[in-house]
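Researcher: Here's the sequence for the chain we discussed earlier.
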Amino acid sequence: MATGTSQAAELGVSKGTAAKARTGLKITRYFSRAGVSPYDEIDWELRTASITNEKGKVVFEQTNVEIPKAWSLMATQVVVSKYFRGPLGTPQREHSVRQMIGRVVDTITGWGEKDGYFATDEDARAFAD
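Model: Thanks. This is the structure I predict for it:
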């Protein structure tokens, strides 16, 4: 198919209408519902993520981390030790998978909003959810 004005003519719409139709992504919700936090759809529990060396000495430990209940111990240990941000043992340290996912989602969604990737604010929210 041709681009620009000729594409608009082929589609039977004016140049202004065609340009408007192509600005931003429309996001259809499949795995989330408007007005419902995706985090509320998950069962959470507090755990301790602890990693020991071959001699049984603790080399990493973080207590009271909020993790999806369905996650394995291995998933808990990897995510908490590798992907949580902030100095261990300080209030700046992430203590929940919600925080970690929120950090990543907010960053990527923010880039999309800044660069005009979403057709509407609701599309950006659906993408984030």
